[in-house]
Amino acid sequence: MTDIPFDQAGAVDAVAPPRRDIGIQRRYRAERRFRLYGLIAIGIGIFFLAALLFTVVRGGYTAFWQTSINLAVSFDPDVIDADGKRDSDPNVLATANYPLLARNALATKLGIDVDAEGNRAELRLLSGMISQGVRTQLRDMVLADPSIIGTTQNVWVLAAADVDSAHKGQIDLSVPESRRKVKDKQVGWMKTLTADGTMIERFNRGLFTFGASSRPETAGMGVALIGSLYMMLIVLVLALPIGVAASIYLEEFAPKNRWTDLIEVNINNLAAVPSIVFGLLGLAVFVNFAGLPRSASLVGGLVLTLMTLPTIIIATRAALKAVPPSIRSGALGIGASRMQTVFHHVLPLAAPGILTGTIIGLAQALGETAPLLLIGMVAFVADYPATPLDPATALPVQIYMWANEAERAFVERTSGAIIILLLFLAAMNLAAILLRRRFERRW
Amino acid sequence: MNVMSETTLENAVNEKVAAAANERIKMRGEKVGVFYGDKQALFDVDLLVRQNQVTALIGPSGCGKSTFLRCLNRMNDTIDNARVVGKITLDGEDIYDRDIDVVELRSRVGMVFQKPNPFPKSIYDNIAYGPRIHGLARSKADMDAVVESSLKRAGLFNEVKDRLNEPGTGLSGGQQQRLCIARAIAVSPEVILMDEPCSALDPIATARVEELIDELRENYTIVIVTHSMQQAARVSQRTAMFHLGNLVEEGPTEKMFTNPDDKRTQDYITGRFG
């Protein structure tokens, strides 16, 4: 704010410009080097991502197909109900020897005489071709419609896991017979059945519908899917409103003082707390103190809610901060109350950011394993949970459990489950991007 | 809050002058001071705002003119550590009184900001928002009438009448600013505060807004902060010069620009500092 001393300007005599030694070449080289480092870094990242996807997909895509055998099963009343007591005792139908029906059907198909002497070993091998799941499959058919007893039905039954693996070429058949699970006879039958189209690989619906099972071919992620769904719903219903309300209060209404600073620091710290700690907290508070059932998706959902809250709060606060202050002044300046300002103007503008943060928080929760192990969601659950209070598992926990199994068929199912989990995560992130685009394009 | 009840000497003198000229006092600031935390940004400002006149607040950056303007509709309340002392009245009523509802006050003392800030809604909704939250329109037809008359008064109606449902943010800068003025008018304020309304506009849009300010004077009392001396000279009847948080002097615009009492005013309007 002083007068500029004009008389000094331009007083310098014209002299040769000073020699600059700024190393142009060196600067350009430094920049080129830096760009190269960047490219290398990106390249490494892409390489590892591609390697991960390649391994998972290569190991897992076969899990979506399951070798099945088309059998003409004759529901022989002599096998199902030898004593003819099925009208008086309903247990007869439930406990009948259904695997025998399937074995006989397979024997008929292959032209093996089941009544012949001395072929017990052969018959055992024959039974080993078919999944034990056939027991429930045929039983359910009979229980649903007892009138099929005495008739012959075309049924697709699952092949046993080892046969499935062998059919997919995952078992090395050059190993001596004594050291491999699939015997030469079974391989021969497999070839016969495959040749006449009786044994084919069909889409593995069971992978999505079955519950836990110790036999790979009847093990599925149905329970885990339902459990994860329940938990996501609980997280969404609890974490979104609580998180958004907390952020709005902190960002728009709370006075800026030491207390709110403290709260802010603690929220940021919570976001960095290892998830297993949340699991211990959930175990102590929800299971031991509040007495909620173990392994229940309700408890899992509550723990994941605690975990997701900081993420949602941080994202929401960032979204609220990003709304230009001029919008707030504009609304306040024409006499809107603070609450009207927030709910009519700020929140709608922050919505895409909030939604994105929420979906990313949900995706994080979907992939979380450690806290669920602690609250007992790692249980062997074969039946669908009817309510969030019933025992259930979650997708990542299911992967963890399958990864601990030794059988070849479980290995491919592990990768298959990983593919499904990754697809869910990708879908959620895609939804986040689309929602963001859609809301931002409005103006 | 200052407990002093009688008006300060300076205001008393000015009031006599105004009464002699048959001018009504709309707003009065007495010993107004503003603190941001421990730092005082405004010192003991005594200023009268005359009804149906344009009062321009001028002065170099950081002199407190915007701060004072924001006291007039309590926009400083929204800044966390800001504290206002002294007394400001609107039609004789202390606007910092406990009984005063700040929301109602802001509907009586509207504000237009430096950067046009239309809501990211349609042109229609931009205007209709204020009347809607204040319950000023009973029916859709009422609202249409309010929107139309506000846009007409802001001189924007003919330009936008065919695209009322298009976003307000799609207009040009000058149109956006007039939309903001229309938005402020729509809630039928008595006073309109303008904080450098033309600083983001090109000369043509500026001229259009200045014309508008002159027209609006008939129905509203206007206080405008401006960095442009020419603008102050063109649109205002009274000018107040601020420097370093103090009111240097206030008077009729012609006098301020031709024969100011204070040397600082003289220096500022001739471009020697600031």
UniProtKB/TrEMBL annotation, chain A:
Compartment list: Cell inner membrane; Cell membrane
Primary localization class, coarse: membrane
GO BP annotations listed: phosphate ion transmembrane transport
Membrane-spanning intervals of the chain: 36-57, 229-250, 270-292, 298-320, 341-363, 416-435
Domain (ABC transmembrane type-1) ranges: 225-431
Transmembrane in keyword set: yes
Keywords for this protein: Cell membrane, Membrane, Transmembrane, Transmembrane helix, Transport
GO MF annotation, one: phosphate transmembrane transporter activity
GO (cellular component) term, any one: plasma membrane
Family named by the database record: Belongs to the binding-protein-dependent transport system permease family. CysTW subfamily.
Protein name, as recorded: Phosphate transport system permease protein PstA
Organism: Aquamicrobium defluvii
TrEMBL record, chain B:
Organism classification: Bacteria, Pseudomonadati, Pseudomonadota, Alphaproteobacteria, Hyphomicrobiales
Stated family: Belongs to the ABC transporter superfamily.
Any Pfam family: ABC_tran
PROSITE patterns: ABC_TRANSPORTER_1, ABC_TRANSPORTER_2
GO biological process, one term: phosphate ion transmembrane transport
Keyword hit for Cytoplasm: no
A GO molecular-function descriptor: ATP hydrolysis activity
InterPro entries: AAA+_ATPase, ABC_transporter-like_ATP-bd, ABC_transporter-like_CS, P-loop_NTPase, PstB-like
UniProt-listed SUPFAM superfamilies: P-loop containing nucleoside triphosphate hydrolases
Residue ranges annotated for the ABC transporter domain, each copy included: 27-269
Name assigned to this protein: Phosphate ABC transporter ATP-binding protein
Keywords: ATP-binding, Nucleotide-binding, Phosphate transport, Transport
Keyword ATP-binding part of the UniProt annotation: yes
Top-level taxon: Bacteria
Cellular component terms (Gene Ontology): membrane
